[in-house]
Amino acid sequence: MSKVGFIGVGKIGQTIVYSSIVSGAVDEAVIYDIIPELPEKFEHELRHAFATKGIKTEILGTNNLDDVAGMDMVVISAGKPRKPGMSRRDLFVDNAKIMMDLAGKLAPKNPGAIYLMVANPVDMMASVFMKYSKEYTISTGDQVETMRMRSYIAKKLKVPVTQVDGFVGGEHGEDAVVLWSTVKVKGKPIDNFNINKQEVEDYVKKIPGEIIRVMGGTTWGPGTIIADIIKAVSLNENRVMSIATPRQYEGQIIHVSSPIVVSSSIGPSLETLLDEKDRWHLNSAMKDFYEAYMENMKQLEQSLKPT
Ligand SMILES: NC(=O)c1ccc[n+]([C@@H]2O[C@H](COP(=O)([O-])OP(=O)(O)OC[C@H]3O[C@@H](n4cnc5c(N)ncnc54)[C@H](O)[C@@H]3O)[C@@H](O)[C@H]2O)c1
Q: Domain count of the chain?
């Protein structure tokens, strides 16, 4: 039995709910949003879709957060999305306030659940949620970038995407780094192939902004990839993914991605298999994350002071 709560069912939330249920990862879904009637009408849509597919997952769409109780996993995609030209970090203060509120309300009702953060800036929101809930929280991290990288290399080299391996690490977004020592095509190191690494890195960083500019948001790509993270946890798949997991840094919990085994428990990390250069990038991503996170926390505290 896998009971999954979904908090926030806007563009990305809806895609995640649909994809994860279709993939067989969810036996019971409780879907919550603050917009009146949205979860309830979405529940009808899902019931119609699953009637034709013969899917028996139990679904409840609700505006009552108390219904999200006793879950094995809680997926949080509630929050503001960025508009064209914005960086993910610009969302920090607004979305952190939502996480603080949700942390206080969800944690007591879902003891032992794994929390999966989706809202941006996703790794920092995972750190904020874990700080205030004290519950184990992971972030979708760079698994999305990992698949963007693999898809781009496959297209460029005209090989099936299943023949491309490798991971992107660091913070999700503009500061993500391709971990080149992990990238292989048909089992051979990437340096055996004629590919412009800068072009790959630019694609991974810029394509989401381009999709947002034209389509108003990213949905099917991350929605499907995030559903696979839920499936790896729910079905205990032992799949290696580049998600961000909590780590201690200067006395704070921070979230930075590197390849790790994902199943009903998370780990071990495969970080020790990276070459020196990739490990250096990862360490520098942790330092940058920590500094930006502390700066953003200061702004958050400032905004919470009575004026
Ligand atoms: N991790 C990733 O790879 C990834 C990919 C895409 C989007 N995102 C992020 O996910 C978030 C949502 O994006 P979107 O495109 O779905 O936005 P959206 O505006 O379409 O949906 C956001 C939803 O959150 C709801 N919401 C707001 N506050 C809430 C609260 N306190 N409780 C419950 N629900 C609440 C809103 O009512 C809305 O339905 C954004 O921060 C976006 O940047 C992350």
A: 2
Q: What is the C-alpha separation between 102 and 123, in angstroms, rounded?
A: 16
Kindly state whether residues 134 and 160 are assigned to the same domain.
Answer: no
**Domain carrying residue 195:** 142-299
Distance CA 29, CA 112 (A): 17
CATH number at residue 256: 3.90.110.10
CATH number of the domain within which 113 lies: 3.40.50.720
Locate 14 and state its tokens. Answer: 């809806």
β-strands 137-139, 114-117: how paired? parallel
Cβ of 35 below 6 Å from ligand 1 = yes
pLDDT attached to residue 307: 75
Report the C-alpha gap between 173 and 88 in whole angstroms.
7
Bridge partners (DSSP) of residue 269 are: 260
Whether residue 259 contacts residue 298, with contact meaning beta carbons closer than 8 Å, is answered with no
In the structure, what pLDDT confidence band is assigned to residue 91 with cuts at 50, 70 and 90? Answer: very high
Close Cβ partners of 276 (under 8 Å, ≥ 6 residues apart): none
The finding on whether 79 has its CB within 6 A of some atom of ligand 1 is yes
Q: Is the separation of the CB atoms in 269 and 242 below 8 Å?
A: no
Rounded to whole angstroms, the maximal C-alpha distance in the chain is 60
| Best of 17, 118, 205 for a ligand 1 pocket test (most atoms within 8 Å of beta carbon) | 118
**What pLDDT, in 10s, does the model give residues 24-35?**
999 999 999 999
**What's the chain's length in residues?**
307
Sorting pLDDT into bands at 50, 70 and 90, what band is 84?
A: confident
Residue 112 DSSP label = T
* Res 281: pLDDT: 94
Q: Residue 11: CB within 6 Å of ligand 1?
A: yes
Assess whether 231 and 259 both reside in one domain. yes
Q: State yes or no: pLDDT of 173 exceeds 90.
A: no
Query: How many CA atoms within 13 Å lie on the side-chain side of 129?
Result: 35
